[in-house]
Queue: 2 jobs
Job 1
Amino acid sequence: MWTGELKVRRVEGEISTDDIIPARYKHRFTDPALMAPHVFENRLPGLAATFRPGDALVSRDIFGIGSSREQAVSALLAAGVRLVVAPEFGRIFYRNCWNLGLPAVEAAVEAAVETEKSALPAEGARVALDLTRGRLTGPGVSVPFRPPAPMMIEMVRAGGLLPLVFARTRPPAAAQAHQDVEPSQTTPVGPQGR
Amino acid sequence: MRPDSPLVGQIIAAHGGGAAAAGELVSVEVDRIYLQDGNSPTVARLFAEYGVDRVADPDRVAFVFDHSVIVPDRDMADRVREATAFAKRIGARIYPRGAGISHVIALEEGWYQPGSIVLGSDSHTCTGGAVQSLALGMGASDIAAAMVTGQTWLKVPETVWLRVHGQGHPALRPKDVVLEVLRVFGQRPFLYKSVEWTGDWAASLSLDSAASVASMGVELGAKCVFLPDAPGRGDGLVPIRPPAGAAVLELSIEGLRPRIAMPHSPRNSVDIDLAAGERIDYVFLGSCTNGRLEDIAEAARIVRDRSVHPDVHFLVTPGSSRVYAEALRLGYLETLTRAGALVTPAGCGACVGTQGTVPAAGERVLSTMNRNFRGRMGNPDADIYLSSPLVAASAALIGRIPSADELVCHVDR
Ligand code: SF4
């Protein structure tokens, strides 16, 4: 899980998984690194080249509707995206995010301006994420959200769903490469919702 | 199953999830899993990465090759080969290229049983709701985990009921009704929820139409959908009756006319007369929403003894090899071909830009598929409109979107 500083990248409008990665690429490649240069290429041409590790996508609209393609998440991760914030998400995209260890935070960014006297997180702003307390903060920015269930945080820390599931079905050594931390044996494994 | 309590809760309880309330996280047994060819290569890669080579029960897993049928690209060809080899290695069922779209096959071959839990690596898996299967689209990691463990985790969704009433225009089709639901209500009331269609309209639909309506559950933003028991839908289904005091969304279709979804969202639909006259260069008839026998029969009826407009490219892709063979036997494909349509092998066809005709820049496509996001068919500079097969076939004849009056004479043929 990314613990460094996050840099806000604003995206506007309803975003589908077709916008994030056109279908053709997931039929051509399985390596997310080969898909990363093509993210948003139809909707926001040129954006992919500007992504850097630690970028946080912040949207005021529903994000990730449509197709089930998990590659929409793996390609964003490969492009450097480490957090997605939107008021609501397409169900499957949301689930895929947590499954791959990318926090997807449901936060009413705009409402926070009124209630929290917060500024809208501006393009390029540096922010920090507190998943456990449910807050996105930065200079002048304070956006609250309902903290995800503890097991979702656990899964993101473990690097996703499969590191947890497969750690149980085979010797731990083989799973090690995919884990930042050791998963607790007692924690239920799951995609947490949707 | 009982007709008066949310089906999703009953199915979850019957699969080891207990009597969980909406919002709770549960683990459930999975009955069947199917994969499509855009994700199976990634699942194969995940198995290799994690050093896993076994699935819980290969007889309950199917691989369908539907998105790249006549493979147009060497990279895709390599992925198809990898996924095929992987399916063979784990002993899963293979539906090869040309067998059809996963969701069409799943209904024909009984992969969706009433009351079962089915996972598909494709968002339109919700089609299983046509026969009251809790059928859920999921991404590659969820699918891989369920293949290995035979289980998955769910958040129990709330249920919302939807009742359609009134008498629509004679050319109104189920696709138009779903587009109208989306225009009137948007996604918000359905997002993450289980949607149960209730009332006479939903119970009057043929199985093909029920599948069409169920397939678009994901366009509503729903987690799953259920249609009621009705003649022709098979055994084991129950009627749907909202419990007393339940929130029921009501939609009147009194006098409603066919609808056209304008570029670039299925939410953007308008009355057909507001779009009538728009030039159409390319008509695509097919997809898991409107590629079944009923759809092809309707198109054949419209174009019989007529000619496709000389400036229109009319592409017809049957949803499965069974649909293809039936349409052939009944003469529909001959009628379409003689009229000037181009009939392709079964599969997803041109729906998602992975094969079939990619539209040119500036071209306007009228398609019977379920979503018209920008670039969906492989070119962000094309404009995609959505409609029912009736409207699409009529447009293919005249090279523009017809008016409601023009359709009525076709309906009466
Ligand atoms: S027909 Fe279109 S929407 Fe249906 S599974 Fe194929 S690509 Fe997806």
Job 2
Amino acid sequence: MRKINEKIFDESIVGQTIQIVNDNFNTQFNKISNTNTKDIFINEDSKNFLSKKYKKSKIRYLSIDNNTNNCEDSMTFCLPSEIIKKLLEKENSNNIGFNSQVNKNKNIAIKTNITRKIFSENSLDFELKLDGLSNKRLRNLDMNDFNIRYNIRLKMPDLKKNTSDIGSSLCVQYDKNDQANPNISCETWYDFIANEVICECERQGLTINLMDNTISQFGRVKQFTISKIDFCNIFVF
Amino acid sequence: MPYLFKIKCKTSSNILLDLSNGGFLSQSITINNLPVGNNNVFLEVNDNQGRSVLIPCFVNVKFNDNQPSMENFLANVNDISQKMVMMEIYTSSANKNKENQVDEKLEINIRLDILNSFFEDISVNFDSDKFLYNFDKVISFLLGLSNKNLKDINFKNLYDLLDIIVNNIDPFLDDMNKISLLYKILNNFSENIKNKNAQILGIYFDN
């Protein structure tokens, strides 16, 4: 799977978007230049988001920058063109490539056990690449130098019976070659009207919502620091 | 200026397969076996400039009441690529005739045998011309297998063959129809791996 993805990605030209839709996964490749920079977005099953219930409600998009966000609320993933421009300027790069796969089921190669299960109904694997040494190949974007937060909306299972389940759930990310150890690199928010979990993540890679009591506690401590709790106490209660 | 004619049929996966074994220059051709269905046979006309046109043949092919067994049907076909076409024709009939359903295990084994023979044949000093010429047949064959209930060993065998295809697919990378079919196979594999062991999952995702 990875080999064919990389071949098609290398073969695609700047300005091109390739989407391959299947029952079990959607694959998307984008190559964007700094002269005609466009949003990178993924919108899986857009029809599902257009229910009357959802249309009536304005769901807040956890945007990277409120002034520059052109993305719609309901997208699985969106990286606004303004952020891409800043990224290209900072890296002194002419082109950016985006390679992604939305897995529409739980058949993914990560290690699960009795205490760790996949909670979200889908997942997103994505990576960004910048100009490489050769004409076609792009190099991986080193995430350490950038303070970008990626918003990923994943589908939650029907929680009518088990709303308590979300207490043990957490958005996590996996590195390419490590399917056993998830990174706690996301904040986790829930949109009960759209029945989605919003993962606001620091890294690239396979992003998924897991149910695991232990790591969800670590995640909560990281997401809700003492300072944030104090803020809530003053302004909410 | 001579035209090259080909008789093609559309499979259930909408792949056009050449029934005329490379085409013909004469005014007529006789083909003894056609796939069952309505209007899925075409005449392709090619000129020497590389242009081609596809003309539908309005043919209604009914299934054979006295269809021989799969082994007998394929027994007299020696050419491997022709065997693939004949197999597609046979299953097109069997799939539409409830009284003549093909045993799935038998079909998997025969299809795998044919595919393995094909790749063994071209693997010695990899014959890329033969591979490219038969690409559609191979993909159609793999598609027919990928949605079957595969054992782990079958799955690994198929995945190894798919790996050879991916390694040699460069001439078709700008042909999205062909690429989509390859992803369709991977999609069927994804459906198939639900009950597979961790090693098989690793093969599928890591490569």
